[in-house]
Amino acid sequence: MAIRVADIQDLPALAALEEASFVCDGVDRRAMAGFLRSLAAVVLLDEAQGVLRGHLILRFNSGHRIARVYSIAVAEAAKGQGIGRALVQCAEEVACRRGSERVRLEISVDNLASQALFRACGYAVFGHYEDYYEDGGDALRLEKRISN
Ligand SMILES: CC(C)(COP(=O)(O)OP(=O)(O)OC[C@H]1O[C@@H](n2cnc3c(N)ncnc32)[C@H](O)[C@@H]1OP(=O)(O)O)[C@@H](O)C(=O)NCCC(=O)NCCS
Asked: Contact, 105 vs 69, CB < 8 A?
């Protein structure tokens, strides 16, 4: 895996992968630019020969020791090769270095692939939001403790 922190030069590829990965609730180009410039977010990406294979947006909330996976996406042709897992593990290392004790995220109740990924990485469901997404769908809240 060639995971690194993304910068503003990566914006076109990151926005394109979001658009290809989510029918609704994806991160648009403007929001992605905001994350790339924000001190309260880290965008990680995996690439091979200069081609983006996957990315993960991690957000931090000052005053809380909880980091949040805001988005994760792996390109269709690169799925099933461990890239999602590697991005999650790298995000946990970054969160730990920034002093976070837990990582949380929301996943659609219908998104079985993402649920399987995060369960495989040690995340557990601790809550449920109704009517969470633009289309009215529900979300599961997952969490992992990353420090003792
Ligand atoms: C969810 C997603 C990021 C997974 O990425 P990936 O690189 O294909 O996942 P990995 O290859 O790292 O898989 C790691 C583990 O996750 C689980 N998993 C991943 N995809 C799965 C699937 N389609 N079905 C069942 N389990 C799956 C497996 O346990 C897998 O381990 P294994 O290969 O040893 O069985 C990818 O499918 C994706 O981009 N989906 C569209 C965007 C999305 O839904 N993002 C999540 C929003 S919360």
From this structure: yes
| CATH, residue 103 | 3.40.630.30
Q: Which residue has the tokens 């001190």?
A: 39
Which structure tokens are listed for 35?
């994350």
Looking at the structure of the chain, the number of domains it has is: 1
**Which of 79, 87, 133, 142 best tests ligand 1's pocket when mutated (most atoms within 8 Å of CB)?**
79
Three-class DSSP category at 19: helix
- At 94-103, the pLDDT tens digits run 999 999 999 9
The residue with tokens 């109704």 is 130
What pTM value is reported for the model?
Answer: 0.97
